[in-house]
UniProtKB/TrEMBL annotation:
<dbReference type="GO" id="GO:0004177">
    <property type="term" value="F:aminopeptidase activity"/>
</dbReference>
<dbReference type="InterPro" id="IPR003137">
    <property type="entry name" value="PA_domain"/>
</dbReference>
<feature type="domain" description="PA">
    <location>
        <begin position="174"/>
        <end position="262"/>
    </location>
</feature>
<keyword id="KW-0732">Signal</keyword>
<dbReference type="InterPro" id="IPR046450">
    <property type="entry name" value="PA_dom_sf"/>
</dbReference>
<keyword id="KW-0645">Protease</keyword>
<keyword id="KW-0378">Hydrolase</keyword>
<dbReference type="Pfam" id="PF02225">
    <property type="entry name" value="PA"/>
</dbReference>
<feature type="signal peptide">
    <location>
        <begin position="1"/>
        <end position="21"/>
    </location>
</feature>
<keyword id="KW-0031">Aminopeptidase</keyword>
<protein>
    <submittedName>
        <fullName>Aminopeptidase y</fullName>
    </submittedName>
</protein>
Length: 286
């Protein structure tokens, strides 16, 4: 279960039930017993709990041809309309509160993938849906994804420029002259020789942020700062590292007004900037 906090999964959890004499096959009636609606997250989750990786099921292979199970082996079918009609708002709210409690009792108070909050959430939802064994076969399936997080600061003469981290930007602390890049930094020729060892100041526009940063790295820039081309703050992603165009230098984003103010300072002479990027880039199992 890769990312389970979707409304569809919550809806499935909110209509836990089975067919009965009064409920025909293909129809899942909402279960509203106290045992479900009163279910709450324990005061303390077992802090040593982790998914049992060895027993995770492998992703099913695509069959070469369609096979039909015998009626005695087939799961009871659930129709979309019946499922939607039986969603119970009280159960949805109860489970939403549980999901919030799961996140808030962890150190990070969130469910970032690969974290405690994420693992506890998948366990909670797995256990709920596994109860519907007449309808579903449920498996844990591991996926490896690259995680990036952190923060960035950029100052000019000690004045904070309100920088934001560009996702997948590498760590680094750079104090160096700021050099404005010609045009939009979408071609190697936009980067003058003075960029080498300096902090490249680049406008947003035309090409993706990662290409601008990669070309800056290829030109030898010690850092890169991308400023917005419209009013407001800027944040974005460089895309996963190891591009063929060049290596990413420490990179941050600033607003249009901050970028224009720095350009005005550059017209009057040399400007020294202090760029500090603290980032985490790692593969996580989710």
């Amino acid at each position: 279960m890769r990312f389970l906090e979707s409304s569809a999964v919550l809806a499935a959890a909110a209509v836990v039930g089975k067919a009965s004499a009064s409920t025909p096959a293909g129809h899942v009636h909402a279960v509203r017993p106290a045992s479900l609606l009163q279910r709450r997250v324990p005061q303390t989750f077992p802090q040593d709990w982790q998914p049992d990786v060895e027993n995770w099921g492998a992703a099913p292979e695509q069959p070469n041809e369609i096979t039909v199970q015998a009626a005695s082996e087939a799961k009871t079918l659930v129709t979309s309309d019946a499922l939607q009609n039986d969603i119970d708002s009280a159960a949805l709210l109860a489970h939403a509160e549980n999901l919030q409690a799961i996140a808030y009792q962890t150190t990070g108070r969130n469910r970032v993938f690969g974290s405690e909050g994420h693992n506890f959430t998948t366990k909670y939802l797995y256990d709920l849906i596994a109860e519907l064994d007449e309808y579903y076969d449920v498996q844990y399936q591991p996926f490896v994804e690259t995680f990036s997080g952190g923060d960035a600061t950029f100052t000019i003469n000690g004045e904070d420029q309100g920088a934001a981290l560009m996702t997948y930007a590498p760590n680094g602390q750079v104090e160096a002259p700021v050099v404005a890049v010609s045009n939009l930094g979408c071609e190697p020729s936009d980067f003058p020789a003075e960029v080498s060892g300096a902090i490249a100041l680049i406008s947003r526009g035309t090409c993706d942020f990662g290409l601008k940063a990669a070309y800056a790295g290829a030109a030898g820039a010690a850092g890169a700062v991308i400023y917005n081309n419209i009013e407001g703050t800027l944040s974005g992603t460089l895309s996963v590292p190891n591009r063929t165009e060049g290596p990413y230098p420490p990179t941050a984003a600033i607003s249009l007004s901050a970028g224009q103010a720095i350009l005005s300072l550059l017209e009057a002479g040399e400007v020294t900037g202090d760029l500090n990027v603290n980032s985490i880039i790692e593969d996580r199992v989710t």
